[in-house]
Specification:
Keywords: Acyltransferase, Transferase
CATH superfamily: Gcn5-related N-acetyltransferase (GNAT)
Radius of gyration: 17 Å
Domain N-acetyltransferase: 1-151
Organism: Ruegeria atlantica
Oligomer: single chain
EC number: 2.3.1.-
Largest sheet: 7 strands, mixed
CATH architecture: 3-Layer(aba) Sandwich
Distance between the termini: 47 Å
Strand order of the largest sheet: 1-2-3-4-5-7-6
Number of strands: 7
Shape: globular
Pfam family, one: Acetyltransf_4
Strand content: 25-35%
Helix content: 25-40%
Number of helices: 4
Order of helices and strands: EHHEEEHEHEE
Length: 174
């Protein structure tokens, strides 16, 4: 398996992965499928922040990040998405993609990564915990799909100790 920066030509395979997840699962709250063109534009816009796992010229999954919220105060925080083809799950692909995504984020100066996970996807909560994310919040019933109200689980990973102290930190008085 090889991890590399995504290319616009990968958009069709990425669309197949993500649109199957949209159509068939509660992993995402959206019901709007993604077009190949919109994915290709995202790949071009995000550059090194959009990665794919590839084996035998087949895309096994992708990982990307983008802004968490707008405004300069959030500039060092990114929200990630990681999705795998059904047959690539539980093979270590997600862990390898996540390590590469974290390295790309660190190189770009990202301090924290955030994952918003559907409560209907406990496997993703377990996966993120296994790679060092911690649950920092749960927003009850903010998602709605297929007649079900779903919680959003927020998980976070601090990527680098930069010596700065958070305002609510007990170390503030140092």
């Amino acid at each position: 398996m090889k991890i590399r920066q995504a290319k616009a030509a990968d958009a069709k395979e990425i669309a197949a992965i993500t649109n199957a997840i949209i159509r068939e699962t509660l992993v995402t709250f959206t019901t709007d499928e993604r077009s190949v063109d919109s994915i290709a534009r995202d790949i071009e816009a995000r550059g090194p922040a959009y990665l794919v796992a590839e084996q035998d010229d087949q895309i096994l999954g992708f990982a990307t990040y983008g802004p968490f919220r707008s405004g300069p105060g959030y500039a060092q925080c990114r929200e990630l998405t990681i999705q795998l083809a059904t047959d690539a799950r539980e093979q270590g692909t997600g862990r390898v993609l996540m390590r590469a995504l974290e390295a790309a984020a660190r190189a770009e100066g990202t301090h924290a990564l955030v994952a918003g996970i559907s409560s209907a996807n406990p496997g993703a909560v377990s996966f993120h915990a296994a790679v060092g994310f911690v649950e920092v919040g749960r927003m009850p019933e903010v998602g709605f799909k297929w007649g079900k109200r779903l919680d959003l689980v927020l998980m976070q990973k601090i990527l680098a100790a930069d010596g700065l102290v958070a305002p609510d930190s007990p170390d503030l008085g140092r």
